[in-house]
Amino acid sequence: xxxxxxxxxxxxxxxxxxxxxxxxxxxxxxxxxxxxxxxxxxxxxxxxxxxxxxxxxxxxxxxxxxxxxxxxxxxxxxxxxxxxxxxxxxxxxxxxxxxxxxxxxxxxxxxxxxxxxxxxxxxxxxxxxxxxxxxxxxxxxxxxxxxxxxxx
Length: 152
Hints:
It contains seven helices and no strands. The termini are far apart. The radius of gyration is 15 Å and the shape is globular. The chain is 71% helix and 0% strand. By secondary structure, the protein is mainly alpha-helical. The model has no long low-confidence stretch (mean pLDDT 96).
């Protein structure tokens, strides 16, 4: 559970462990999708990966939260991995798009616009993960609009 929740220890990197986890997710996704996933299947693979991260991340986060004795401990970064992965679904693999997705996800994760702050108050791993999934969804919507209207 600790290896999953901390992304193999990235959660202990300072400063900004969540930012590190998000950046690693974006770069690894770009490399993986660019070299190993056909273009027409990238949205399916990204969605499947996000679901796997969520399915394993919620219970792992719950265990680490309980064992560390702290609510939403900062070293749990699997939520950033899941949120960033959501923010990358069905986006073209261009560096400009990935950077904007990364920046918007981090911005929404930090600012927590409504109703994300309320989701964060849920108990256990669900509370840890859901606000980041919402931040990822907000970033995804905006980047999709920017790509659709050819701003990016």
